[in-house]
Amino acid sequence: xxSTLPVVExxxxxxxxxxxxxxxxxxxxxxxxxxxxxxxxxxxxxxENESPQESIVNLSKEVAKARSNGAAFVVITxxxxxxxxxxxxxxxxxxxxxxxxRTPISIHLETSGVDPIxxxxxxxxxxxxxxxxxxxxxxxxxxxxxxxxxxxxxLIFAEKVAKKTxxxxxxxxxxxxxxxxxxxxxxxxxxxxRNSQWRLSMQTHKWLGIL
Length: 211
Fold this sequence. Notes:
By secondary structure, this protein is of the alpha/beta class.
């Protein structure tokens, strides 16, 4: 049974992007990522060996404390969180927060979709990458599809991935310009303006200068 996980950081803030932008959330950022996007803004999360192993029990208690201080949900992110078996962590979070408030806190997962789903998250935000396409089970299960846009090829990829989800329950579709990428901003803005099924996601936490 997994009792610890490598944790880069955890903090209580606001969700900055996607469908739940602007809502209070507690974030757990796990270490380890083999996807390794060149534009990644958390490259310190790539190596598992550089982050301390943290107790799942203690992390769950921190989630419960954040909930009592206003967090609407917990976000498990990375790195690539599904490199790890998330079931023990999610089970413990649900147990502890249910004891606190009769109902467990909602668990959100941010993933590139390269590994099988574990932990039975309540909300999956799938952010697939051109160089590491997502698994079919993630395409079926995601509640939102969020593609980062730097160049025209990313728009083609976004439509290709979105098309694969249309035979399932359709997720919310987001295009998110790469941070400080002028071309990506222009492409995403113009594409969303012409294609009503897509929405624009901006990294509001970066504009506000908060975690």
